[in-house]
Fold this protein.
Amino acid sequence: MGSGPSEPGFQDPRLPAELEREIFEAAALHDHATAKELVLVAQRVRTWIDPILHNVILQTLWKPALPNYPPLYKDLGRMTKGPRFKEMTSWAKHVGLQNLKVSQAIQILESCVNVQDLALWIIVGPHEPLRKIIRNLPVQRLHVDIERFFSEDPIDGPKLGRFNFDHIPLINITHLHIFLLPIVPWAQWKSIALLPRLSHLAIDNWHPEFIRKVLEECKSLNLLVVVSSRITSYDFDPISRRDPRLTELIESQWIASWERGALTGNDIWSRAEAARAEKREERRRRHRGVFPLECFSPRSGTWI
């Protein structure tokens, strides 16, 4: 008879620790709901999965609390930190904050030492502390109401006449998604061209002067996305034919869109890249036989 669990020769079958960890981590990355179940398997598995499970933090003033995210605080007023506040915030690489006071946002971000993707929706109060802390965090992707971000008036809020874009707090940003794009002269925007790493820019308003100047002046820019809540009548073709970095994306649910991107990687940037590729392929099919190999020359600003 073969040996059984109660016999002296029996050994508990177990995969090598590194392989076991890779399998559990792959399963957790594939599905957020699965990750919540896996932490119950064993303490060693919880140690591996917790940083993945809390890779995304989304804090809002919605009631009841969002079901997918354990609360960071013991109370709705965010006065008393929860017992795992420091752990969960230190693991987060994607952080979304909505309708909070600046002081509350700062308290959270001070512990988010690994955040790479940050979204700020309606943060109330003078934003100078936020501008300072963002510069010292490893944030590369920022989604923000830019006019409020550069506002210092805690009562009246942002004012167009006082708006001036300052590149210094955003010097490390590669992907910038601007909500509520201020329609102001380029002179108030011009330092956006000084962002040395800006490769992806999204805006939510059709502003021909801004679009033209950004495409001309932002030397590192690879993609400019105009995000609309519905199909628009904007005439993209004359500009996009000259410069294929410009594309359009239909998106109406900002927070849900950001959350989906944080959890799955299917964010506005990947969707915009896909839309641009589809448009480019459509153009090639349309001209096939006339221009068998079509490409864009940034130097001449034309298709060749």
Q: What stands out?
A: The chain has two domains: 12-53, 54-303.
